[in-house]
């Protein structure tokens, strides 16, 4: 019996255990009887007939140490399995002796001589029924093992009596248990019932109890392999190259994490992306590079944002943005055809200019599947209506329609009232430019409930929007020339209303995936009022690079605009990949000429000399005959979340950060700096005033 045999330990290993035991006991004492740990736990109360002599603290430590070490020695030697479960389920034969490893479930005793338990494999994907009888000698041993404990078992295969043919095919075998060896004990104080919700600080239990989370991590690994194959099998092939994580602080646009060094006053910075290294690789004769890069940005968390994240990063020399987009489309099609039930579109993905996306959908990452297009109507509206919805002088006023449900104005009114009264609606009511104007179309009322618009505007809306009984009409004002940034107030409201309509059952969810490229972004974006929250590139021009300061102008005319009175009119050769309203990634053609790159730093962005000096390494590489190049970064966490239909990237990351500022509740990071570490790294924490 493989459980009864004594472990084979070397003299050195035996000596090390004695040293540990003697250290804890402070004196030599006879070893305890090495029985099954679950039956001889030092924490158990004495059984009848046992001595109740009260032990001293030294004796208790000695007893605990001997028991713990004795049982640990039993668990470090155990037999290898004869099969993995997947192979076992397809190749097992009746009467066969097998050894399997896994986790035991809850035991069901049918009598004092017969019990059943499921054994789940180490991947927790497959399971098999164990049959334990007193005759086999395993009954008492199995009873001593708590549910969810890891074990190794030995037994004899027999065909399971099934209720029907479907069950016989799905779960054909059971194992008559001969021996069971517990490799660790699952404690009583941890609840593992199906409806128990584990907090984030117990992420290991969340993963263990949720097949959905484990499956997401397996899917993520498969997606990674598919991407790698697609890039390495292309011609010419991409080469996977790791770039450093200990970088330097450079003004790219986001807030960085700093890593102090033992050299006084010097620190590393964790990379916001491998952008500069991969451009240096283009100057180094590496024509096609990629990596699954870890990136770090000190930003507040959202459902689609983590302070550390993974991106599929790639760069191509002698390439244009169009070349890069074709490669990325190939990777996406490979992913969808391999892992998804429906393939991605076969032709080139749709391309939409940034200004079109902002004006028609109020977003630079629009979900166009559900319509609700925005149009401008301020030139049609009566002055008194405009004054009621906004304090702005000469505003732009825009409109969209949400189709009603079953032509029922009462249902539409109830839906919009509940939304505006909810926490999700509060930001729109509190808009400093004025709240939205809400109108429910009701054919029983004068002008179908659109009297404030006047006859001409109401007729225009009826014809242009195709409004019908029960529809919702929403108008919103914004300042002139405000189509900058990522979204408008009306664009945000459009998205929020549709999400609320689906969540509340007012509208059905829209199926499928719609991919598009949003292109022709402005090269530079004016500084916002809250720009102090974002470091930008540290220049004094009053604007910053929309993407990053290495992005090239799109055309020769855009190059000329760099020296004009308003460089913000220049268009960038930048492209974002969007699916269903989610930005999966972005890329651009880069400035490959060192003199032009320095001109953008110094003359356009007006960065100070000491900040330009931070890019000396990049300028040197570009100066060494760097070829034209372009690249892309695909947000891998977001990609997997979209493919699996998850609302948050936390659901596809093994150990995500939580909270607004990104804490890891399981390991309690970030953690306080010790005085010793502060001294080594020349740090001092100042109390806030």
Automatic annotation (TrEMBL):
Q: Name the Gene Ontology molecular function terms of this record.
A: aspartate-tRNA ligase activity; ATP binding
Q: Where is this region: Disordered?
A: 39-63
Answer whether the UniProt record assigns the keyword Hydrolase to this protein.
Answer: no
Highest taxon, organism lineage: Eukaryota
Q: Which NCBIfam families match?
A: aspS_bact, PRK00476.1
Listed name of the protein? Aspartyl-tRNA synthetase
Pfam family membership, one = tRNA-synt_2
> Does the UniProt entry include the keyword ATP-binding?
yes
List all Polar residues biased stretches. 39-55
Species this chain originates from: Aspergillus saccharolyticus JOP 1030-1
One GO CC term of this entry?
mitochondrion
Q: Which UniProt keywords apply?
A: Aminoacyl-tRNA synthetase, ATP-binding, Ligase, Nucleotide-binding, Protein biosynthesis
Family from the record: Belongs to the class-II aminoacyl-tRNA synthetase family. Type 1 subfamily.
A GO BP entry is: aspartyl-tRNA aminoacylation
